[in-house]
Each structure stands twice: as C-alpha cells, then as structure tokens.
Amino acid sequence: MPSSIKRFLIGRPLKSNELGEQKLNKTKALAILSSDALSSVAYGPEQILLVLVTVGAAAFWYSLPIAIGVLVLLTALILSYRQIIFAYPHGGGAYVVSKENLGIFPGLVAGGSLLVDYILTVAVSVSAGTDAITSAFPGLHAHNVAIAVIFVVLITTLNLRGVTESASILAYPVYLFVLALFLLIGVGLYRIAAGDVSPALHTPVGTPVAGIGLFLLLRAFASGSSALTGVEAISNAIPNFKEPAPSNAAKTLIAMGALLALLFSGIVYLAYYYGIAPREEVTVVSQIAEQTFGRGFMYFFIQGTTALILILAANTGYSAFPLLAVNLAKDKFIPRMFTIRGDRLGYSNGILILGLLSIALILPFKGRTEHLIPLYAVGVFIPFTLSQTGMMVKWIREKPEGWIAKLIVNTAGAVISFTVTIMFFLTKFGQVWTVLVFLPVILYMFHRIRKHYRAVGEQLRLTPSEPAVPIEGNVILVPVAGLTRVVENSLNYAKSLGAYQVIAVHVSFEREENEQFEQEWKRWQPDVRLVSLYSPYRSIIQPLTKLIDTVQHKASESNYQVTVVIPQFIPKKGWHNVLHNQSSLLIRAHLLYRRNVIVTTVPYHLKK
Amino acid sequence: MPSSIKRFLIGRPLKSNELGEQKLNKTKALAILSSDALSSVAYGPEQILLVLVTVGAAAFWYSLPIAIGVLVLLTALILSYRQIIFAYPHGGGAYVVSKENLGIFPGLVAGGSLLVDYILTVAVSVSAGTDAITSAFPGLHAHNVAIAVIFVVLITTLNLRGVTESASILAYPVYLFVLALFLLIGVGLYRIAAGDVSPALHTPVGTPVAGIGLFLLLRAFASGSSALTGVEAISNAIPNFKEPAPSNAAKTLIAMGALLALLFSGIVYLAYYYGIAPREEVTVVSQIAEQTFGRGFMYFFIQGTTALILILAANTGYSAFPLLAVNLAKDKFIPRMFTIRGDRLGYSNGILILGLLSIALILPFKGRTEHLIPLYAVGVFIPFTLSQTGMMVKWIREKPEGWIAKLIVNTAGAVISFTVTIMFFLTKFGQVWTVLVFLPVILYMFHRIRKHYRAVGEQLRLTPSEPAVPIEGNVILVPVAGLTRVVENSLNYAKSLGAYQVIAVHVSFEREENEQFEQEWKRWQPDVRLVSLYSPYRSIIQPLTKLIDTVQHKASESNYQVTVVIPQFIPKKGWHNVLHNQSSLLIRAHLLYRRNVIVTTVPYHLKK
C-alpha cells in the first residue's frame, strides 16, 4: 500500500541509464533555474525605497544611481559566473570554486552558507507567495501556514518525480511573469512618453536632500542587492543541462542576467517616475500596476503571476541544494545518504531533507519569514565573495590567455560582493547576526562528520599486518521461552551447524516455574543442555547477558566464537505484532549493539 | 541516561517477592479507591437541579424525593457489591461477574464499557479539577490543556512508582475533602436550626408545580445517579488489599457508601433549604459554601479540596484499569503485554496506556470534557446492570443459604441500574449514542485478538504427528559491499560453520564497477565463490531477494537450509548511525518478514 502511494505520487522507478532523458534544454533551464533570481524583482526595488524613505520622499531620485550600482554588480556577477561555468563544467558553485582555489576552510564556509541559504530560499519564497495569495483572498489568511506547508509538500513531490517533468510545469508561470512585467514596463513607459503621467509626481534627479549620507546610500545599495539572490543557481546546476552543458549554461546565464537587468531597471524607473512610496500593505509592484492599468484584469494578472513565481522560486532551492549536498557528501562532510539517487534518479534524500527543514522554518515563524530576507541575502553574498576571490587566485596562479581581463572581472565582483556583505553586517546587524552562530555550528558538524568517516575508513581497511584471529569452533546459545515449534525449529538449525556445543537458555520469573520447565525439557530434549535462570527483577536481558559474558569469556580462551540463535515467530499481519511481546527484537538489539555477539534469527512464519 | 531518568522518576526496581509490601490497609484503600465516588458529590446534586430548573425554581423541592431515590440505588449497589466481594475474593468487578454467570458476551460488554469508562474517568476528572483551579486563578485559564496534561503525567508517574507510595500522597486530600464537606454541612445545618437562614428561600415540600411529569423526574433521577460513578472501584481492586482482603474490602466499601450517602444528602438538603439555583459560572457547592461561610478561608478551603479530589479521582482509574486489563489479557482479549509487571511491580503497560489515552481525549476536547459526563455515567451503569444480573443468576443457580434475601438485593440493584441506563438513552441520546458505536468496535477487536492468539497457540503446539523436516546441510550467502575488515570478519565466521557452501554476493549499480570488483575479489578470496549482480534500479534488496529465491529453491530439494550472514559494523556513538546507510537493517527486516530466510548478523564494533 505505501509503495503504491509512492508510485502514484512520484511515478515508476527509472533505470540508471535513463538518466540522460532528464536533462534540461535552455528554455526549460531558464525557467527552472531563474525563478529565484527573477522573483527578486518583486521585492528588490522596494527594499531600496524602504531605506530612502527614512530621509524623505525627496530622496527617491537616489534610487536611480543605486540601481545603476546594482546593475554594475549584476554585470560583474554574471560575467564572473560565466567564467566559472567554463572553468568548472561539472558544476562549480561557490563550494567547489572556493575549496579548489582558496582551500578547504573557505570552501566549507561557502558551502555551509549556501546549504542554509537554500532552506531560507524555500521558506522565504513560499511564505511570500502565500502572503500574495492570501492578500488577494483574505478569507484564506487564517490558513497561511497550512497553505505554505502544502506548497512545500507539492514542490517536494514534483521534484521527487524528476527535474524535467517539474520543469514543464514550472516553465509557464515564469514566462508568464516575464511577459506580465514586460507589458507593465512597456505600457508604463509608453504612457510616460505620451505625457499621460504628470512629471510633478517625482523630484528631479539631482535635487539636494537634507540628511542623506554615504552610510544611508550604502545601506540602500545593500538592500537593493537582495534582488540578486539566486544568480548562482545556474553555475551549480551545469550537470542538469543538455550537452554541450557549459555553453548551454553560459547562454542561459546571460539570458537570465539580461532579463533580470531589464525588469529591475524598468521597475525602479517606473517607481521613481510615478513617485511611489513604499507602503505597509501594498507592494511597490502592485502600486505601479494599479497606476498603469487600474484594478482590472491586467492588475490581477500581474499580481497572480508574481505570487506564482515567488512560490516557484522555492524550486531553485530544490535544484541547487541536492547537488551541493552531493558535493559535500562526496567529500565526506555530510552523511553519505545524500549521494544516493532515488527511484526517479533525483537525489531524493536531499530533496526530502530540504522540504522538511523548510517546513521546520515555516512553522515556528508562522509563515512570517519575510524579515529573514537580510539573513538570506548575507548568506548569498558570503559565498559570492569567496567564489570570486577563488577565481582571482585561479587566474593569478594559472595565468591562461587573456587572464588580466578575467582577473579584472572577478576582482570587481569580489570587491563589490565583499562590500555588500560588510554593509549588511554594519547596517543590519540585528537581522544577520545569527549567521555568526550557525556557520560555526555547521563547520563544526562538517568537521566531526569528516573525522568519523576517516576513522571508519581506517578501521575497515584490510591490513595484512593484523590478520584476523581464526575461529576454531562455535558455541551456540538458544534462548527458549517454551516448548513450541518455533523453539524446535531453532534447535534443529543450531544442531545442523556442527557447533562444539548447543546450550538452551530459559529465563523464568518464578522459582517454581523454573523447576517444572527443567523437568519438561529433560523429557523433550534430553541431548541439549539447558541452563535455567531465575530473574527476580523480571528482566530477560539482564540474566541472559550475564550468562553470555561468562560463556564468551570461556570460549575466547580457545578461540571459540559465541552465537546466539534467537527463535522468532513472524505473524501474518503487521498489526499482530502488537499482540506479542517483542522480546526477540529487544534481545537482538541489545546483544548486537552492547555486546560483541553474533546473533542469528530463525524466523517461523505463522500461516494464519 | 534515559535509564537514570527512569530511576529518578519511578524509583529502584523491586523484586517479584517484594510484592506483599505494596498492599493497602483500609484507611489508605478508602482514600485511594473512593476519591472517584466521593468527588461525584461535587457535581451530582447540581445535575439534579439542572434538570428541575427547566420547569422552574418551584420544582426544586423534588430534589429531596429524587435524592432519596438515589440513596436507595446507592444502598442497593453497595449491598450488591458487598456480596460480589465475598463471592469473588480475587477481584470481581463487572467483567468477571458477568462473564462467569451470564456468559462471555455480556462479560465483554461490561469489560469493554469499563475499559473506556476508566479513560473517561481520568479525562473528565482531571479536566474538571483543572477548571476549578483556573477558576480560582483566572490568569492560568489560557493554559488549561497544558495543566490538565501535566496532571495526567504526574498521576501516571505516581502510579508507576507503585500503589502504596501514591496512596500515602493521595490519602490527605481525600480526608481533607471529607472534613471540609462535613464542616460545611454541619455549620449549614446548625445555622438552619438556629434560625439564621430564612425559610422563605425555598418552596415547601409538596408545592404543586405546573409542567412536571414522570419523564422529567426520571431524567433528573438519572442525572443525579451520575454521583454514583466509581462505587465499583473497590470490588475490582480486592487483590490490592491486605489480608484478609475480602473482609477488609467489604468494610471499606461500607465506609465509602456511608460517607457518600451523608455528603450527598447533606449537599442536596442544604441546596434545597438555601433555595440555590444552578448557575453557569459558580457551582452549587461553591454557592452553598459562600452562603454558609462568606468568601473567607473556609470557602477557599472547600473549593481547594474539591479541586484536588477531582484531580485525584482520576487515580481510581489508575487502580482499576490495569487490573481489568490483566483480567482481559489473561483471557486473551487484549494484548499480552498488559499482564507484565513493571520495575515497581505495578502493571506499568496498563498505567502508561491509560495515561496516553486520556491525554489523547483531553487534547481534542481542549480540556472541556465535562459534557462527556452522561457518556461516562452510561458507561458505568451498563456494567452495573450486567454484574447484578449476573449475581441474580448465580443465586438462582447455586441457591446458597439465605439466597432469597441476596437475590432480592441484587434484583433491586439490577432493576434500578437498568432503568437508569434506559433513562440515559431515552433522555440524553445525543450525548450517549457514541457508546453504541465504540462498544461494537471494542467487542470486534476483542474477538479478533482472541482469534489470533488461538491460531498462534495451535500453530506453535508441538504435534508428534508432524515431525520437523531434518536439515541436511547449510548454504550460506554473505552480501558484501566492499573489501573491508567487516566483510573479512563475516567470511571467517561463515567458513567456521562447516557449511556445504559459502557464497559471497555483491550488488553494484554500475556495470564497470561490477567487473572491477570481481577481479579484486579473485585476488583477495580465491576460494570463496562470488556472485556479482547488476542492479539497474539501484536497489540492493531486489536482486538479492531474487538470488536467494533461486538458491533456496535448489537447496530445499536436498533439505539444505539457506542462511544469510550480514556483516554489520556498529558505530561507537548513536549519532554515527545517521552517517551510514542502514542497508544491513533493511536487508535483515526484508528477509525475515518477507522471505523465510535465517539471518545472521555479525557485528563489527568500531573502536572510535
């Protein structure tokens, strides 16, 4: 039953050599990998205005030079990541690039930041998208958390089905969103050109503003750069592209950068020209849409696609997290299970863990995760800085043809990213300090896991210098609860093993029962020695363990191995297990984990 | 660690022969077993007035004849249960009495009702007590559910510690409650006698009332008889008494009946004389206390002990439920685990299950379980009726000396109990219909469990007519994941068993890896045959199972037994398990439960 539910939800299992079919072409890849970056346009411009409004509406014209700064940063990032794609065609990403060029520690800082960041991507995007929906349908507002969780479950299921299939579903909303915003910007610009919009709504560029300073401008710039979260997704996911993967990925990256730049500058410019101030309940994009189209079909189309793309932005996390996890797991910094492909060839453990962790973030925050945006942004800019510094080191070290130009591109990117990171810490410390707690915790975890794997590897390695102790013979203990067929079965098996000695062990809670059992035993199995133990504290394991210790001590003197053969009857139906005391399971677990004893389970299947 | 927490909470384990120390003397038994019955006084009289008030305050004088009816019923029940105690000195209770005299089905109806009823006892009493507390401290009202759950956990822990120790703690509040009510009734009667209370507050007995009818009076009588819930507790718990148990239990029962009768009639009379009408927020007892003493120390003393005894009433459930469960489990109607004594010699599984189930009732009802009272009462009167009918049959069948008198007592009890039960169904169907659903479900469950145990018993019995098939030899399969010490260890063990053949099995997910592994194997273990399997769907269990089926088929032809020896390394610390794919566990569970294969686990303990 659970297996057929699984089949229904995620489809039939795929063979390993069906992997190729799941690769992405450029159009689908653009949709699946850029929803995070493009959806940032929905909140990025607003973040700039939110800082400027603290000085006054007259300062809004500064959004134009700040936007230019963000575009420069965007260009540097896109060019830099383009270089990374060709340098690391198997999927670079900040972790690999930082690790290879700067060393293991910076690599882990980048990897750890991103790992947490993808969880934040999912939680923040889904919550924001849910808010957009429940703003449109206020009746649903009380169920915000439930809706967000349902969306996470839905996206997780889609991703477990496999990348291509989810891409087909995801492509339409992303392109509809791009179409909607292009229509909005186009019509808006046309109306400005036609003179429909009063120029009195905004202060002219260059108006002097009291109270403005470098700190405030840098803060606004940092805030605006939260629109750039998500641009690294493509460089992480190169193996998902159709061949030639690197060149396809690079083209997709450029297309995404161009789209992002156009949408971002369009929104910033319209907001400036319309003189829009950020408001508590209505987003900036919503205000622009309302002023351009009125509250008609186009308004709801724009709001609807915005909500949709925010929820789908979560999907970027689902593409990137499992791949990053594979890289970290291959280097033995996180559990090995992340490297296993599921039935549909996706890294299902990574997908599932990401879904669970983001639900675990949504629940305590009751779906109000928006104030995690600065934390989320800083978690992106730390790896941005590291990977571009890594590229700088690479160019200086390898000096390929034209390396000076490449170095300049990455240096610009590194400097700006680093500045943005520092800006976040200086101007929004209250919201980003947690990164200083969780990063060390994660790094320590990486360290401990790696240490464990190394220790295991050493202990499992075959060394000719330490040959195993030979086993000269076997002593077999059979715990028996009564005179039944299950016991008979196990005894027959024990005898068939040609052991040096077979000993039956009976534990009873009352002395009288003990003697009676011994007599019955002598009649039934006169040739098998019975050790009868009385347990005043009604524990089976305690006296059994004591006996095993004694037997083992004696056996080890002559290199004999002790085996405990446990009779276990298996009921026909699962619920029957509740009806039987699971002593066999307890004994087995105790002996395997607490004592060094070989445990054999002889099943006896009940027929009804 | 968990073990030391357990020690702290419930104390050191006790030996089986320390059981005698835990027996109850009469004073303690009265406290521990009568809190349920006595606490009913806190709501019983109110239930009568709540029905009468629907006609008008003039009808309140009817509470006196109705109370006399309840007292007659109480007398019949006490006398009847006294007879049951002597007839069934090993703990009678409705289940045993009904089963032995009326047959298995009526017995199970009684047992099933009581089983559910004890859960209701705990949930209802604790909720009511919590309400009393949060009424006194309104600031706590928002935490009603949490407080109720904490009380259940507390009482469960006390009961896990053992009966005597919890009795010492429980004795004081019960006696304080009795003292408080006696003071209240005494002072109240004195004030009436002294002429302090105006006789104009109540209508005289015999005042004609419009709209009163037999149906209404019967309904009021049924409601009032909810004050009698809990009187059966003593007859269930005879084995808990010190010797001579039956006579001690009978004396305790009479004492409890006398106390209950005095408190009940006192409260009813005062309520009538003071002309008290039931109100939404203030209980009848609280109104009497306020009119008698004013809102001073005595008022809070009475309210406080009332709250306490309501919570402790839950304890009656904890004394009765596990014993009833033992009786049902010995007859194989519920899982065997209920017959096992825990570390402190209490039937800990019954205690734990009762605690969990009552929390499961408190949570969905958000602590407002008061409207379950009619359901609770009907669940008591069904077994009352059955056990007294059972006693009637017993007297008629056995005809001991003086049986006519005994028969009359039980017949009176049976008729009144049956009438009350019918009254509940006629007058409060909306609140008690669920009993018609859950009783059949429970009876079906009893039937299925008994059927399973019988089937198991038959299958396990040794029958000389069907001798076991002898085992001629062994074939051993060893699944191997790599060339490691763990595998070496397991192979050495497999070879030591003198098997006919040892076969290593390797499953790989890629064809190339397969060939490479075969070559390495030949160099390392040239004398052990290796079967190398390719698994396109990345499942280990699937190809392994297929191979085992083939081997088993061949082996069974010559009576050879197939054993799978699974190498398993055991990490040093629990959290390390997360870092390793638990393939061994999965394979073992699959082979044991789905296939009839003997599974041997060879542990390899890591040292760091």
Question: Could you characterize what this model shows?
Answer:
The longest helix of chain A is centred in the middle third of the chain and has 34 residues, at 297-330. The two termini of chain A are 20 Å apart. Chain A has a five-stranded parallel β-sheet, with helices on both faces. The first copy, chain A, folds into two domains: 26-452, Amino acid/polyamine transporter I (Up-down Bundle), CATH 1.20.1740; 473-605, 3-Layer(aba) Sandwich (Rossmann fold). Chain A is elongated and about 110 Å long. In chain A, β2 (501-508), α20 and β3 (529-534) form a beta-alpha-beta unit. In chain A, α8 packs across α13 and α13 crosses α14 (348-362). In chain A, 64% of the residues lie in helices and 7% in strands. The first copy, chain A, is of the alpha/beta class. At the A-B interface, α18, α19, β4, α22 and β5 of A face α18, α19, β4, α22 and β5 of B. β5 (598-605) of chain A pairs antiparallel with β5 of chain B.
Helix % of chain A is: 55-70%
C-alpha termini separation of chain A: 20 Å
Number of strands of chain A: 5
Helix vs. strand class of chain A:
alpha/beta
Question: Helices, strands, pairings?
Answer:
The structure is a homodimer of 608-residue chains.
Chain A: H1 2-10, H2 26-39, H3 44-52, H4 63-87, H5 93-102, H6 104-136, H7 144-161, H8 163-193, H9 214-224, H10 233-236, H11 245-274, H12 284-293, H13 297-330, H14 348-362, H15 373-398, H16 403-427, H17 429-432, H18 435-460, E1 473-479, H19 485-496, E2 501-508, H20 511-524, E3 529-534, H21 541-557, E4 560-570, H22 583-594, E5 598-605
Parallel strand pairs in A: 1-2, 1-4, 2-3, 4-5
